[in-house]
Amino acid sequence: MEKHVFEAALAGLLHDVGKLEQRTRADPWNPAAGIDPEGQPIHATYSGDFIQYYVPAAYHTALHGMYHHQPDKSPAADKRLSLLVSLADKLSAGERADADQDEKRKFPQQTVSIIDRLYRGKDTKNHYLPL
Q1: Three-state DSSP class for residue 123
Q2: CB within 8 A of 114, min separation 6: which ones?
Q3: Closest CA to 50 of 12, 20, 89
């Protein structure tokens, strides 16, 4: 696998890993200890903490994913990978920056399983766990 493909996959896979820890904490709105949020969402601090602890050799690559909400603030010299993860994140969430508030309400607030999409209209049961 080419290095840039591997790095894009790694940054994409780890970009929101911090949400898992953040959502299990009693204080989910406080950043991870020792990591400055630098204007990033709090879950990004937990992603950074996870990466530093579990995959420190990949920290600089995964850093691109941490800055997917504000790629311009990424400490990386080349911010293209942060921009790529940002775009992929928005596409997978059904977000559009140019959409007005009424349009944004039409998009799903979470990724819906393919099973739910197949059966939509045939029954009203959700085939996924709501947030």
Answers
A1: strand
A2: none
A3: 20
Name the nearest CA neighbour of 71 among 62, 83, 54. Answer: 83
Strands (E), the chain: none
Distance between CA atoms of residues 15 and 43, nearest Å: 9
What span, in angstroms and rounded, lies between the C-alpha atoms of 25 and 58?
25
Say how far apart CA 68 and CA 41 lie, in whole Å. 10
Q: Which residues, in sequence order, are bridge partners of residue 120?
A: 123
- Residue 16 in tokens: 């929101």
Residue whose C-alpha is closest to residue 85's, from 18, 9, 21 = 9
pLDDT in tens, 66-122: 888 888 888 877 888 889 888 888 877 665 555 565 655 554 455 566 666 666 666
